[in-house]
């Protein structure tokens, strides 16, 4: 019976993944979340705990020494970590974002070399697409990769790179043929230890303060040509194909942040007394809580459906990845803002976690393509006749 309804119920294995990650986060991630935010410091405790439990890059296939988690299990890991600490959830999320180009399009040699190291915890992976003057219009990038014998030489600046400086490995999109715009972009693996790689100062951010965001400088970085991912000129297509899959992980991050805020608000509403009774007794507040719960569940269902499409590689993944990310991030912003409302003045202070969650939620509407860009992507898919394959 259950095999006939695979989309609408989690398997026992997926439920077990959730339980294991939640236990780990309750013990080793949540207790540090406020301190990580307050001091804008790397969540080392979470990084260590996730690595020890093999949740740091769960998507890496078993053949490369990884946990071999499918797209839905990976989403559940990210959601549960984000429920405790959004900054920490960027460890598994960005390890997938950075390494997926290798997994999707890299040579067997690149996969053996880099996915095994990622799985073994020898180094994280970052994704370098954005530049100071190329954000939504990523194809307008200026970073150049010029062939020189058996090597390529890279020059340029990548901006807003999550985990820059912490990661050992970087997927870098660079222009190999300036005449061909998006078809003149190629993808490469650059290592932190390559001569000419350096990093800017950490950005001072509104939220996800524990997740380092820095510029990456490429100054005559010479790398062997076999570090190119896929064929020359396919880097932009690989970058976009990667985002189709990883936008689902940002949707999961958003669902997790929203769930964390809802959980806290529910507990608080039952404790806090005004007018001689718990504020949860007031219907005005009940309706707010009901809407929060309804929207979190809707976002979760959409995220899991998109994860199924990611795993199967369905032709409507581009629409679903964008829709899930856009919807779930808008829900996260609304639900975390309303959680602050439920706590009243206390919610506005750093003594309670919901203001951190509200600040953290904001980034999910911006990165991996702003929600305006997601709407452009969705509209293009709809207008080109892509049908949902539910
Ligand atoms: C904390 C953080 C972490 C990040 N991590 C990474 C990372 O690891 N790797 C990476 O490559 N990038 C990363 N980014 C970059 C992120 O993806 C970009 O910031 C994002 O794509 C938007 O680009 P932009 O900031 O240049 O904004 P812009 O493109 O300048 O956009 C500004 C505004 O204009 C709107 N806009 C732009 N074009 C259109 C249009 N055609 N129609 C309607 N509205 C439009 C946007 O929606 C936005 O509201 C990160 C960013 C942040 C802040």
What does this structure look like?
This protein is an alpha+beta fold. It contains twelve helices and ten strands. α5 runs antiparallel to α7. It is globular, with a radius of gyration of 21 Å. The model has no long low-confidence stretch (mean pLDDT 96). Bound molecules: flavin-adenine dinucleotide. Flavin-adenine dinucleotide is lined by residues 126-130, 135-136, 160-162, 205, 208, 213, 363, 366-370, 372-373.
SSE diagram, text form:
Elements: H1 12-28, H2 30-38, H3 44-52, H4 71-84, H5 86-105, H6 108-119, E1 125-128, E2 144-148, E3 151-162, E4 169-175, E5 185-191, E6 197-199, E7 213-224, E8 228-229, H7 235-271, E9 273-274, E10 277-278, H8 283-312, H9 317-342, H10 344-347, H11 354-364, H12 371-383
Parallel strand pairs: 1-4
Antiparallel strand pairs: 2-3, 3-7, 4-5, 5-8, 6-7, 9-10
Helix pairs in contact: 1-4, 4-5, 4-7, 5-6, 5-7, 7-8, 7-9, 7-11, 8-9, 9-11, 9-12
The structure holds flavin-adenine dinucleotide (FAD).
Flavin-adenine dinucleotide is lined by residues 126-130, 135-136, 160-162, 205, 208, 213, 363, 366-370, 372-373.
Domain Acyl-CoA oxidase/dehydrogenase middle: 127-221
Domain Acyl-CoA dehydrogenase/oxidase N-terminal: 11-122
Domain Acyl-CoA dehydrogenase/oxidase C-terminal: 233-383
């Amino acid at each position: 019976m259950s095999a006939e309804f695979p989309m609408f119920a989690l398997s026992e294995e997926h439920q077990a993944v959730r339980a294991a990650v939640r236990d780990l986060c309750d013990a080793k991630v949540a207790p540090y979340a406020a301190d990580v935010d307050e001091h804008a410091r790397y969540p080392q405790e979470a990084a260590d705990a996730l690595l020890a439990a093999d949740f740091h890059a769960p998507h890496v296939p078993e053949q490369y020494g990884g946990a071999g988690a499918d797209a839905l299990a990976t989403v559940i890991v990210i959601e549960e970590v984000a429920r405790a600490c959004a900054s920490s959830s960027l460890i598994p999320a960005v390890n997938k974002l950075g390494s997926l180009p290798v997994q999707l399009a890299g040579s067997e040699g690149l996969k053996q070399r880099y996915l095994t190291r990622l799985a073994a915890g020898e180094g994280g992976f970052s994704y370098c697409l954005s530049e100071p003057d190329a954000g939504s219009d990523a194809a307008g990038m200026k970073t150049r990769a010029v062939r020189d014998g058996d090597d390529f030489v890279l020059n340029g600046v990548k901006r807003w790179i999550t985990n820059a400086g912490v990661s050992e490995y970087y997927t870098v999109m660079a222009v190999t043929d300036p005449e061909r715009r998006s078809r003149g972009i190629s993808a490469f693996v650059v290592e932190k230890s390559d001569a000419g790689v350096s990093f800017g100062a950490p950005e001072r951010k509104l939220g996800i303060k524990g997740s380092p965001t820095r510029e990456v400088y490429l100054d005559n970085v010479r790398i062997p040509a076999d570090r190119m991912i896929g064929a020359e000129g396919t880097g932009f297509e690989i970058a976009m194909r990667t985002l189709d899959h990883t936008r689902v992980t940002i949707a999961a991050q958003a669902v997790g942040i929203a769930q964390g805020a809802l959980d806290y608000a529910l507990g608080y509403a039952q404790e806090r007394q005004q007018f001689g009774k718990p504020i949860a007794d007031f219907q005005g507040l009940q309706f707010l809580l009901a809407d929060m719960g309804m929207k979190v569940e809707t976002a979760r269902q959409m995220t899991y459906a998109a994860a199924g499409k990611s795993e199967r590689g369905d032709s409507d993944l581009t629409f679903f990845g964008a829709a899930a990310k856009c919807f779930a991030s808008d829900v996260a912003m609304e639900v975390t803002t309303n959680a602050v409302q439920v706590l009243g003045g206390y919610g506005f202070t750093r003594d309670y976690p919901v203001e951190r969650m509200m600040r953290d939620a904001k980034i999910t509407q911006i990165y991996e393509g702003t929600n305006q860009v997601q709407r452009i992507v969705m509209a293009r898919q709809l207008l080109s006749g892509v049908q949902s394959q539910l």
